[in-house]
Every structure is written in structure tokens, then in C-alpha cells.
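Q: Predict the assembly, please.
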Amino acid sequence: MRGNVNLYDLDLSELETLVTSWDQPRYRAAQIWTWLYRRLATDIEQMTSLPKALRELLAEKTVLHVPRVLARQESLDGETRKDLLEMADGEQVEVVLMRYIDRRSACLSTQVGCAMGCAFCATGQMGFIRNLTSGEICAQALHLERELRNQGQHLNNIVLMGMGEPLLNYEHTLAAIQRLNHPEGFQMGQRRITVSTVGIAPGIRRLAEEGLQVNLAVSLHAATDALRSELMPVNRKYPLDSLFSAIRAYLTATNRRVTFEWVLIEGVNDTETQAHALAARLEGLLAHVNFIPLNPTEGFTGRPSSAERIQAFTAILERRHIAHTVRLRRGLDIGAGCGQLRRRAAA
Ligand code: SAH
Ligand code: SF4
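A: Predicted assembly structure:
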């Protein structure tokens, strides 16, 4: 089977090309598409509306890589669950399901590991292994949807905020978004999909031109170049001026509000200086900041900011009219910060 095309890696048009190359009618592709993205089949054998001969051809020439669950952790409150999934080549990525009162959100990985080396991030601490294919990204959402369906529920949101940097795996990430959004397939609305980036300026400019309605989140974490470069080496390549010029281009092209992520680290980026620098950067921008207390990781000595410091920090933003929310880091007890389950399983 190794080397055969993974059905999840194909767009509907590519699936049509494949089945017609076997002298099968084009509509068979749409049927397969339905089995994959609406009926959530896990095996070609389940596609009983296809003639047996076609199922045999599919089984011979293609493969359906449904990731295997290697480990699972559930938070004590039962609201956050994290699965370690095994890809066909044995590589492992994490997918997180977050349950809220009225919706369920999936946090998908886009790479195995990450080359960006952010100091506080468990995935960054492990380094880059490889890109995920578009099919491997989609399969994570299908995995969660399948389980939710058994409970009469479904996914309402998708965030590309798991392991890896989506804009450094641009083609596969974009293809996965388009496939998950497909009107005859998974039908996840673009406005319910969020791409989170460490701040790859050219990737942001490129995304701006795609004509998509997806949400953009930028992991900022520091508002001076000196501190940001210390925490996030990518800032040396795309310093704040170049990052914000890309963000302004994105806002002009899309007119969609940009979210900024800011992980609060006690005594590091929760200072008055940083609060004012952040406010200065965001004044006049269509933006919203999410503050998240740091999730401690083994490779980083920083600690999450105390409630008092968060209060003092956000009071400055309040005074300067910068829209923001302080989020509870979910799943703290299961190390739901990205990369942490894989590290533990590997230990
Ligand atoms: N590479 C992308 C998306 C994956 S990381 C990015 O950096 O945006 C998803 C989010 O988790 C980012 O905002 C990242 O800064 C944050 N994060 C990483 N390590 C964390 C930790 N230890 N505690 C809290 N948030 C963390
Ligand atoms: Fe990579 Fe994002 Fe982690 Fe930075 S925070 S190392 S970009 S996954």
C-alpha cells in the first residue's frame, strides 16, 4: 500500500480525474467525496454505494489513511481532550477538542514539530520534523467529527493552532482549508476557521490575496523587537515593522479583524512598557488581543503571570481602548499547550 495516493490528499477535481482515468463515470468521484467528508467512512469497504469493482480498484490503487489514536488525555473537567495521532509513516501529531457550552472547537496541527523555536513552546522545543499533507490535516478534523457524531454532536470551529506553523506549510494548509470548507463535503464555514501564525510576513500577504473569509490570528507575545526576538527567533527575520506592514496589507485586502495572541509570562512580557508598546502598535487597527496565561513547559523557565499582574497589564490596554479578552488556558492539567502530549508520550 505504501506509495499509493491517500484519498484524503485529493480535491474533488483530482478525484474526478482519477476515477475517469479508470473509465469510471465522473459522478463516482462525488459519491466517494460524500463517503469521505459527509459519511466519514474509515474504510473503502464501507463505501457500499460504489460498485464492488470500483471499491477493489480504490483498494488497489489508493489508500485511506485514518490516523490511529496512540494516547489520549482528558482534562479533569472533561471539557478539553487531546489525542496523539499516528500518521502512516509513524510520525505523531496532536489534535485537541475543546468543548464549550454551545460549541465544539478543534485545534489541528499543520506540521510535525516546528522550526520556529519559540522559547516557551513545547513544539518549538522539539524542532521541525516534516510538513503534514493536506489530507493529514483534514483527517484530524474528520477524526474528531466522527467521535462527536456518535454523541449526536458536531464540530463548530476549527483553529489551526496545534503543532507547527501553518504559513510555512502554505499549500497544504490552504488545500486543507478549501477541502474542509467544500460545500458538498465537510462544509465548515470559512468564518469558523482560524489560521494562527507566528508572524510569517510574506505568508500573511499571500493569504490576504486568496479571497478567503477565514480568521487570522497572529501570535505576538511581545511588542518590542528586542523582547520578541528573544522569545521568538522569527522576529529577527520579520521584525515588528515588517510584520505590521503585512498585517495592514491583510486588513486592507480583507477588512477582517485580526486577532493577536499574547501568552502572559510573569515579569517578561506583562510589564507596563510592553502594555504601552502593544497599545501603540494596535491603536487604530481593526484588532482584538487574546491574553492567555503561559502553559508551563519543561524547556522554559518562565511562569504564568499572576492574576494581579494580568489585572495591571490589561488595565493599561483598557485605558488606551484596545479591545482584548483574557482567556483561561484550557486543559492546563493535561498539558494542552501544543506539543506537550507528544513530548510526554515520547519520554
Ligand atoms: N505556529 C502557530 C500556530 C501554533 S502555536 C503560532 O505560533 O501561532 C498556537 C498558539 O499556542 C500560539 O499562539 C503559541 O504562541 C501558543 N503557545 C505555544 N506555547 C505555549 C505555551 N507554553 N503556553 C501558552 N501558549 C502557548
Ligand atoms: Fe512553532 Fe507556533 Fe510553537 Fe512558535 S508557538 S514554535 S511557531 S508552533
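The chain has two domains: 5-63, 68-334. The domain at 68-334 is CATH 3.20.20.70 (TIM Barrel).
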